[in-house]
Amino acid sequence: MTDALLRYGVVISGGGSNLQALIDRSADGTIPGRIVLVISNEPGAFGLQRAGRAGIPTQVIDHRAFPDRASFEQALAAALDAAQVELVCLAGFMRVLTPWFVRHYRGRLLNIHPALLPAFPGLHVQQRALDAGVRFSGATVHFVVEDVDAGPIVAQAVVPILPGDDAAALAARILQQEHRIFPLAVRLFAQRRLEVQGSRVIIRGHEADAAAALINPLPDG
Ligand code: GAR
Question: Element (H or E) spanning 87, and its range?
């Protein structure tokens, strides 16, 4: 553990409700960290306004302004590195990243995905969960690796699928849990409690909570 506040960056493409949860939980001290930069690849992303309201520096790095994925990602990494971020959070960032970028931030790049990985990677996952007839879906925070929507899992939350659900209703129910587990994962990272062992994440200091993990995957404290 360290007293130093984690400097972290958040990369978005859209509404930024997960960004808002990270802003709020950093502001109230739940996360011992500070968002030092928010980047969006979409100029009109509402999340940019959320960051602006919170006084957080923002940058638009529009992927369409670059000839290829590699040069876009180099610009992204240059901005994040210039801000001296220790951790990068992908919060509704809708571009696939190349192995170069993933390796550049190995072990310090987190993504949130609106399904219980490894089930339903990719896009339109709420509709696909409904179509598959599963009774539960949820949200996953994981370290990013070269494969899309794979990588060591930090936190998950389960959400029931209810009669009459459509993709929007399910997405909204999952988002509520995303707003809980993304800040939790960042807090654990900031507390230096996450240790990747192969494909698994060990949470230091979590041993005593193993029994509670059966009903509540992660401790609140
Ligand atoms: C969230 O549901 C997030 O899990 C998902 O996009 C939404 C963004 O919402 N991310 C992905 O699908 C990544 N492939 P937000 O902008 O309100 O945080």
Answer: strand 87-90
Q: Supply the residue whose CA is at minimum distance from atom 9 of ligand 1.
A: 92
Whether residue 6 contacts residue 189, with contact meaning beta carbons closer than 8 Å, is answered with: yes
Same domain, 66 and 2: yes
State the Cα–Cα distance between residues 54 and 65, nearest whole angstrom: 27
Looking up residue 29, the CATH number of its domain turns out to be 3.40.50.170
Decide whether any atom of ligand 1 lies within 6 Å of the 218 Cβ: no
pTM over 0.85: yes
Is the distance from the beta carbon of residue 20 to the nearest atom of ligand 1 less than 6 Å?
Answer: no
pLDDT digits (tens, 9 = 90+) for 185-212: 999 999 999 999 999 999 998 765 554 4
Q: Which atom of ligand 1 is nearest to the CA of 14?
A: 16
DSSP state of 144: -
Number of domains in the chain: 2
Whether 8 and 95 map to the same domain: the answer is yes
Range of the domain at 11: 1-105
162 and 58 part of one domain: no
pLDDT digits over 33-85, tens only? 999 999 999 999 999 999 999 999 999 999 999 999 999 999 999 999 999 99
Is the shortest distance between the CB of 170 and ligand 1 below 6 Å? no
State whether 6 and 95 are in the same domain: yes
Strand 33-40 versus strand 194-197 pairing type: unpaired
Q: Is 113 a catalytic residue?
A: yes
